[in-house]
Amino acid sequence: MASASFRLSLFISMFSVCVLAQNDGSLAVGSTLTAKEASSSWLSPSGDFAFGFLHLQENDRFLLSIWYDKIPDKTVAWYVDSPSNPVPRGSSVVLDAQTGLVLRDPGGVTLWRTDGFSGAVNHGFMNDTGNFILKDINYTWIWESFGFASDTILPLQELVYGSVLNSRQSESNFTRGRFYLRFLDDGNLVLRTNSLPSSGNDTEYYNSHTSDPKNSSDPVYRVIFNSTGSLYMLKKSNQTIQLSPLSVRSASEYYYRAKLDFDGVFTYYSHPRNFTGNSTWTVLWAVPEDICSDLDGVPGGGACGSNSICSLVDRKPVCECPKGYTLLDPYDKYGSCMPNFNQSCGEVEKLSAEDLYDTWVASDLYWPKSDYEEISPSTETGCRKACLEDCLCAVAISRNNSCWKKKLPLSNGRIATNLSSKVFLKYSKIDVAPQNPCLGGPKSKDRETLVLVESVFLGSSLFLNILFIGAACFGFQVIYQKRKSNFHLHNEAVETNLRIFSYKELAKATNHFEEELGRGSFGIVYKGETNVSLTNKINVAVKMLDRVARDAEKEFLAEVNSIGQTNHKHLVRLLGACYENQHRLLVYEYMPNGTLASLLFGDTIPSWKLRTQIATGIARGLVYLHEECSSPMIHCDIKPQNILLDDYYNARISDFGLAKLLQINQSRTLTNIRGTRGYVAPEWFRNTQITSKVDVYSFGVLLLEIICCRRHVEDVEVGEGGNSILTDWVWDCFQEGRLDALVENDFEVLEDRKKLQKFVMIGIWCIQEDPSLRPTMRKVSHMLEGIVEVVVPPCPSHFFSTI
Ligand SMILES: *[C@@H]1O[C@H](CO)[C@@H](O)[C@H](O)[C@H]1NC(C)=O
Ligand SMILES: *[C@@H]1O[C@H](CO)[C@@H](O)[C@H](O)[C@H]1NC(C)=O
Ligand SMILES: *[C@@H]1O[C@H](CO)[C@@H](O)[C@H](O)[C@H]1NC(C)=O
Ligand SMILES: *[C@@H]1O[C@H](CO)[C@@H](O)[C@H](O)[C@H]1NC(C)=O
Ligand SMILES: *[C@@H]1O[C@H](CO)[C@@H](O)[C@H](O)[C@H]1NC(C)=O
Ligand SMILES: *[C@@H]1O[C@H](CO)[C@@H](O)[C@H](O)[C@H]1NC(C)=O
Ligand SMILES: *[C@@H]1O[C@H](CO)[C@@H](O)[C@H](O)[C@H]1NC(C)=O
Ligand SMILES: *[C@@H]1O[C@H](CO)[C@@H](O)[C@H](O)[C@H]1NC(C)=O
Ligand SMILES: *[C@@H]1O[C@H](CO)[C@@H](O)[C@H](O)[C@H]1NC(C)=O
Ligand SMILES: *[C@@H]1O[C@H](CO)[C@@H](O)[C@H](O)[C@H]1NC(C)=O
Ligand SMILES: *[C@@H]1O[C@H](CO)[C@@H](O)[C@H](O)[C@H]1NC(C)=O
Ligand SMILES: *[C@@H]1O[C@H](CO)[C@@H](O)[C@H](O)[C@H]1NC(C)=O
Predict the structure, then answer these.
(1) Catalytic residue at 218?
(2) Which pTM value belongs to this model?
(3) With a 6 A CB cut-off, is 133 part of the ligand 1 pocket?
(4) Where is the Bulb-type lectin domain (predicted)?
């Protein structure tokens, strides 16, 4: 949790060792560091701490800071808290006799320098305590980084009256954040949020209440972090008020630090000094107790943004949008949520409230504010109805025969399990897009159960795991595989004729990874040439996996083996693999005719015949993956970029089995979803079971794209007239009997109207929001091939936009 999300290149530590060998940490005036990967830090004598430029890989900037150099994550303990830090590559810091440390950009412009000292600097020193010290000729300390805390304090550092710690924006963004800690001169330690621009005053969410107004002769006057790692407040009388736990472990064995985290929690951490492998910082103490309820600010000023719901995990706030709401800024998990629908007052007069709105039911959600009306007495049904009929109402809470109506923005939402209340979250049945015709869609039993399941889940576990696509795929494949097969590791490679390549061989085959064929979700694909059998050389595609979650060779082999066991006309064949040190590469058949994406969305439209063949081929390939192969699997990422075309323009599915192989983690999953927006089935966004029906959904979207030769989500200009989202537009046209509009100018298709109609209907069946309404791939395949009849599909009825 506390681990910073960046890593230093090896170079720094290697170089630093050299520095260490050369001096004892004492730095002469004139010493300079330059912001680049190598040679950019000064180590403390023990090597525990380093001062210098930490490379932030995300944006290739360098943070002038002090960090724990022996911890692989290079946890930052201090940084120059200035808007110009981090700095660009090529910036420098120099130790100057008159001005101390001076930070300059590559053009020589001064960005920051030490201030608050008098005298002349004789030398600098990176202390093993994590304190960077400037000393004069008499070895008197004239400046120390401990006097200018950023967000962290370390043992031997003290807070005096007026001392402040400022939080960062996020764990990896060092811009100043919303929270600060201040030691007030009345002896209280407080945590506050910077006032939002719109409001006047800062909100206080923690106060140590340690000042004693009745006894001003004995005030608290210091916050001490002593050398053995104990954090306490000290009174004039030498009495102490302990903050951190007393029985902390020995400071010679553990690092300690206390940090005002970016989420507003002041947290006391420890980390073993001598650790093996991937040890992390442990939280030993934190204030406030419960930031979700203690930070009770102005709308939007809580621990989470407006309309968001806060829950505590390990003393830390976790923010989630309620059902029907999504993040305003998808990258800011702690930001505000927006409803996915428009709440319009009095716009659509012809329709009754019941036609326009419905509610989801949840329990345990609590918004202490945003009430605008209380109805008492009121039954639950009465409460729900009152909210439905009131255009201002966003949420109604029914409890103890009373009803509270709340309007947007909802602030300080949180989980409260002891209130025994019923919460009605109002949503619009008219989808996001105003032109969506799914008015009052079918009210099936399934739908009701779905809502119920979701409500229960909303109330309890707070849908923390919404987006664990990879993990889910992984789980399901495991289940599938357990049922189906057992591997015998030793002879498996033989069984499947998979060839194990050495890294050297593949480097040679690809001419040192010269020609890039494409970049996928899992890594870069290079073109190569190798002799798979003794006699003939063939072209291959070599995929270099960019992450290696499963480093165990055995497991990697087992996964690769299950991929290698697949053999189908419509799947790309795996020929071999390489697992050497950190390298993981897969060698596939080379597909000369590119991806379906480039075929469909290129300049010339492929023939209707070819398109129907391709669609049928993909369906067959998926039937095989889902049901027929020896270790069935869910693909999880069906999209035109993952369908390749062989010499004969047969569709060949690629990238199957990789979700499991790589055990994708959460952040990767998020980007995956973003990248593949539109193909992702709605159940990914809920905590419901993930089944092979997710592939059916993606196939449905893909099928509609094949029919119309356009992308699911089109640029806004193209989408004029309300057809920017393909699935919505297709449903529109289907309902209004205007299928011609979908394939304008494509005379081949217009002459094959019956098939067009059938394919569109199959596509709509596949994109049903309710997975149980979607057919299996086998049935889809049969429908496409005309083996079974296709009946008129119901409205896909999106609750929220599927883009
Ligand atoms: C390092 O810090 C410790 C504790 O503040 C201090 O006693 C020691 O003198 C410092 N070392 C140097 C070389 O300044
Ligand atoms: C260093 O110490 C000497 C002798 O105690 C004193 O004369 C001089 O002013 C001191 N220099 C500084 C910069 O404090
Ligand atoms: C850090 O956050 C600030 C404020 O939100 C933003 O302006 C800035 O672009 C962010 N920096 C990075 C590197 O993301
Ligand atoms: C800020 O606090 C002061 C004193 O508590 C109060 O008088 C003032 O109205 C507050 N300002 C706002 C904008 O809330
Ligand atoms: C104030 O604190 C001092 C030191 O702890 C104590 O001796 C004295 O009795 C206290 N006075 C009152 C009025 O509590
Ligand atoms: C640090 O403080 C704790 C209690 O607050 C005390 O037990 C310990 O002896 C102190 N360590 C030192 C080196 O003063
Ligand atoms: C508090 O402790 C310091 C250092 O141990 C000592 O100099 C001072 O006299 C003590 N003060 C009181 C009131 O006991
Ligand atoms: C670290 O732990 C290992 C094994 O427990 C021990 O051999 C080694 O001496 C320890 N190193 C230090 C610096 O404590
Ligand atoms: C390293 O992390 C993995 C996964 O989180 C865990 O299974 C393993 O036990 C950890 N190793 C050590 C030495 O802590
Ligand atoms: C329920 O309401 C009644 C009357 O309004 C009140 O007396 C009672 O304390 C309330 N119970 C709870 C649990 O709030
Ligand atoms: C809400 O309505 C406004 C105006 O009627 C429109 O501009 C906006 O796009 C709508 N937003 C959504 C999410 O439908
Ligand atoms: C498709 O593949 C065949 C066989 O390799 C090749 O002759 C043809 O040029 C390819 N077509 C395109 C458009 O690349």
Answers:
(1) no
(2) 0.59
(3) yes
(4) 24-147
